[in-house]
Amino acid sequence: EVTRDDPDTAFCTLANREELNPEEDSIHHCLYQFTRNETLTETNKLLCDVCTQRHCGPKNNVKSEKKYVYTNAKKQMLISLAPPILTLHLKRFQQAGFNLQKVNRHIKFPEVIDLAPFCTAKCKNVAEGNTKVLYSLYGVVEHSGTMRSGHYTAYVKMRAMNNHLSDLVLRGKSQASETEPVKGQWFHISDTHVQPVSVSKVLSSQAYLLFYERLL
């Protein structure tokens, strides 16, 4: 879908992302990098239909690809619809010569995360005037081992039903006002072994998948 927004607001977010100053090796830094503003130049220029029509006339008269007009552009990936459940999948591998190598370093992630700095200013399911889009952590998948073999375990929070989340799923909107993590007990699950753990243990895990439920 092609939309033509005002250039002055096209790259605006619900909250000022420039005030983030995200810490290295954190989920905030990953999101900041993923949604950064990019400049498309040289071989990455954008094919512009408007520029082409101005230069060559109606599109039907363009007979050769050489007549298409490419222009410098800015690109940014932002969230246009805040999901009820936020799933973050960390890329835990990198190219090492001709081989793939697992990335084992710890990535910091919070109990409550605000997506507003990564959402478009016109985010479809955020009430007008809201400058926060909050999510509470309820699940983590961790992988131990190498690229060739290993073992998956999970951390899951047992908690009361989130009625606001149900409203969001069923009706597309929520009247939630909570800003604190959803209360509950965390458990570590490895095959048939289940044991209660502290939240500090969860936050120190080497996350591979993160699951958040929307609060606000």
TrEMBL record:
<dbReference type="GO" id="GO:0004843">
    <property type="term" value="F:cysteine-type deubiquitinase activity"/>
</dbReference>
<dbReference type="Pfam" id="PF00443">
    <property type="entry name" value="UCH"/>
</dbReference>
<dbReference type="InterPro" id="IPR050164">
    <property type="entry name" value="Peptidase_C19"/>
</dbReference>
<dbReference type="InterPro" id="IPR028889">
    <property type="entry name" value="USP"/>
</dbReference>
<protein>
    <submittedName>
        <fullName>UBP16 hydrolase</fullName>
    </submittedName>
</protein>
<dbReference type="InterPro" id="IPR018200">
    <property type="entry name" value="USP_CS"/>
</dbReference>
<dbReference type="GO" id="GO:0005634">
    <property type="term" value="C:nucleus"/>
</dbReference>
<dbReference type="InterPro" id="IPR001394">
    <property type="entry name" value="Peptidase_C19_UCH"/>
</dbReference>
<feature type="domain" description="USP">
    <location>
        <begin position="1"/>
        <end position="215"/>
    </location>
</feature>
<dbReference type="GO" id="GO:0016579">
    <property type="term" value="P:protein deubiquitination"/>
</dbReference>
<dbReference type="InterPro" id="IPR038765">
    <property type="entry name" value="Papain-like_cys_pep_sf"/>
</dbReference>
<keyword id="KW-0378">Hydrolase</keyword>
<dbReference type="GO" id="GO:0005829">
    <property type="term" value="C:cytosol"/>
</dbReference>
